[in-house]
Amino acid sequence: MRSSSIAGLGHYLPHETISNRDLETLVDTSDQWITTRTGIQSRHRAAVSEATSDLAIEASRRALADAELEAETIDLILLATATPDAPVPSTASLVQDALGIYNAGAMDLNAGCSGFLYGLHTADAFIRAGAAKRVLLVGSETLTRVTDYTDRRTCVLFGDGAGACVISDEGQMKLLYSGIGSDGSQADLICIPAGGSRFPASAETIASHQHYLQLDGGRVFKQAVRRMVQAAKDGLEATGLDASDISWVIPHQANARILTAVGEQIGIAIPKVVIDVAQTGNTSAASVPIALDRARETGQFERGQLIMLLAFGAGLTWACQILRYDGPSSI
Ligand code: UT7
Question: Does ligand 1 lie within 6 Å of residue 257's CB atom?
Fold first, then answer.
């Protein structure tokens, strides 16, 4: 029976940053409000010349180097994003060309902030079915391009970044469990209303800010906690594990308060629940691989430890994965 492992990891954060103080000059907010309500102090912003594919390419190069693999050994590229370079073609194909990965299929995948975990679920299915041997999975976002910097309820939250991994049947983090879910009846809680087939771009949609990301913060907060807690419980039940067996939880980095509440309800305390939102903000599909790579870089993972990934996002969507860390105990 084939199985999937993460064989290499990498991430990229653009150099420019937007601090809470910078936001104070744009909207009626304060560093204190943002820090206490979200845990975010700063977020990265892609340069004018950088698009989602550029971030993805850099993160992918780092993941391939970490896996010590040549780009041409990849046979499938999955790119999770809600902010593609353009609706057509897929951003994954642009990454494929830039990296010279000539014998691979390439496609984008949109599951909002759960996109990376949905991508891992998909990659695992390809590998176990024998339809792919080595998958390059990228979560890459330029959310600052769809953020309304006149709306204080949303503009303090989002940042840009990319995280990538190589998935194959041999690697440092073996996938033990993967579960995904969705509830489209609450699609309006997180959305970009215009720019698709329902409301194509028009002078009116632009004037009414319909191309920016809109969020019902309070309702999303409650759903995020509820769905991630349930996804985690489902994962523990399916594997016969107890919360005490999990050494690390790497959740989608939306808001430190959400992650604290999730940890409390599944019985895993901070710092085992990794909160990495302070310098990155919410990078949607990129947040889990960025946080996972940054946690690994601290050298805290030990061989044999179990790592739970958790995500929640637009759709609504949610997902949980459990990995066993088989890499070296410190870097
Ligand atoms: O990645 C997808 C998932 N996304 C999320 O998980 C986001 C989930 N939601 C959240 O993180 C939080 O709901 C927010 C951070 C968006 C908002 O925090 P909150 O504690 O839920 O605040 P609130 O929306 O209940 O607003 C409380 C007050 C309101 O003022 P009034 O009506 O009480 O006078 C808001 O207008 O805070 C006000 N407010 C702000 N004040 C200063 C909202 N945004 C700001 C702001 N600065 N940036």
Answer: no
